[in-house]
Amino acid sequence: MSSLDSLLETSFVTSDSEASSTQVEPVCCPVLTCHLHGDLVLQASDGVQFLAHKINLQTYSQVFAPSAALEASEDEVVHLTESSSVLRLILQYMHNIRQPDLRGLPFSTLEALSEAVEKYIIYSAMEVCNTRMEQAVIEHPLEVYIYASKHGYSELVDKAAPLMIKLPLGEVIQTTSRAGLELICLLKFVRYRVLWEDVFKSSVLDNLPVVLHKGGYAECAKWPDFYHAVVMKAALNLDALRRFGEITDSAKYHITGCEHCTIRLSQWTVKVSGSIKSLPLYSCVDM
After folding, report:
1. CB atoms < 10 A from the CB of 253, how many?
2. Angstrom distance (rounded) from CA 153 to CA 145
3. For residue 61, what are the CA distances in angstroms to 95, 118, 128, 156?
4. Per residue in 80-115, is it b (16+ CB within 10 Å) or e — as a string?
5. What DSSP line would sit under the chain, residue for residue?
6. Residue 98 contacts by C-beta under 8 Å, 6 or more apart in sequence?
C-alpha cells in the first residue's frame, strides 16, 4: 500500500441492513444542487456517510487521484478520519460551485478543515483556509503555529510565534508534541523564547536610562515605587514586553509631578520598544 493509500481505509458494507444500522438517512451528496452520478460512499469518523463522485475526487484532490480508494465499487464504503462537518465542507470544495463561506465557522472545525485540505492536497481550499487561520492567529496562536509549521507557511509562523510568548512553555511543549510537530520546531521556539527573556533582562531589569535630577541625583524618591510596580507586572509574563506602554501607564501615578522621572520613563519605553524591534523573526532564529 502506498503512502497515499495509507491515508484512506476501505471497508465493505456486506448488506443493506448493515449500512442502515449506522446511518438511517439516505446517503446523498452534500451539494443539494448536484446532479452528478454518485459512485462512491465516504464515511466520516462519526459515522455519517456522503455520496461522492470519483471524477470530482480525481479532479480536485492530488491524494485521491492515484488512490486505491477510487477503485472501490459502489457498494463499498471508504472510511475517513475527518468528522462529518469537515467532510461535508471538503466535498463542497470538490464541486464547481461557489465555495463555502467559512466566516463564523467554529475554530475547531476550521482547524480540522485546514489540516484536511493539506492532507488531501485540495488546492481549491488551501488558500482560503490559510487566510482564515491567519485571521484567527491572535486568539489561537499556538494552533496556528502548529498548522503553519507543519505545512511550510513561514510568514504565518512568524506572526504566530511572538503571540505564543504569553503561553506557559509546558503548554507549548505538550500541545506541539501531541500534534506530532517535529522536535526541531519546538527547540527553535525555545531558542526564540530565550531571546525574549534576554530582552526582558537587558531592557527592563538592567541598564535603565538615567536622567539626572536637581542636585545631580540619579532619581528621586518617587521612582523606586514606580519601578517596583512596573517590574512586578512585567515579570508575570513575557508577553508584558509587548504591552510595556500599557503597564507603565497603569503605574505612572507614582511619578506624577516629577518632570525628570517622566523623561526617564519616556526613554525607558523607547529602549524596550527598540529592543523588541531588534529581535529576529522566528524563521531567522539560528539553531
Report:
1. 12
2. 9
3. 11, 10, 16, 24
4. bebbbbbbbbbbbbbbeeeebebeebeeeebbbbbb
5. --TTGGG-EEEE---HHHHHHH--SPP--S-TT--SPP-EEEE-TTS-EEEE-HHHHHHH-TTTTT-GGGG--TTEEEE-SS-HHHHHHHHHHTSSSPPP--TT--HHHHHHHHHHHHHTT-HHHHHHHHHHHHHTTTT-HHHHHHHHHHHT-HHHHHHHHHHGGGS-HHHHHHHHHHTT--HHHHHHHHHHHHHHHHHIIIIIIS-------GGG-S--TTHHHHHHHHHHHHTT-GGGGGGHHHHHHHHGGGGTT-HHHHHHHHHHHHHHHHHHHTSPPGGG---
6. none
Residue whose cell numbers read 482560503: 128
CA dihedral angle for residue 106, residue 109, residue 115, residue 120, rounded to 10 degrees: -130
Asked if residues 188 and 161 have their Cβ atoms less than 8 Å apart, the reply is: no
Cell of 281: 523573526
Per-residue pLDDT in tens (0 to 9) along the chain, 287 residues: 444 445 544 333 333 334 434 444 668 888 888 888 888 899 999 999 999 999 999 999 988 765 555 566 666 788 999 999 999 999 999 999 999 999 999 999 999 999 999 999 999 999 999 999 999 999 999 999 999 999 999 999 999 999 999 999 999 999 999 999 999 999 999 999 999 999 999 999 987 889 999 889 989 999 999 999 999 999 888 889 999 999 999 999 999 999 999 999 999 999 999 999 999 999 999 87
C-alpha cell at 79: 472510511
Q: Is residue 136 within 8 Å of residue 158, measured between CB atoms?
A: no
Bridge partners for 34 per DSSP: none
What single letter denotes the amino acid at residue 33? T
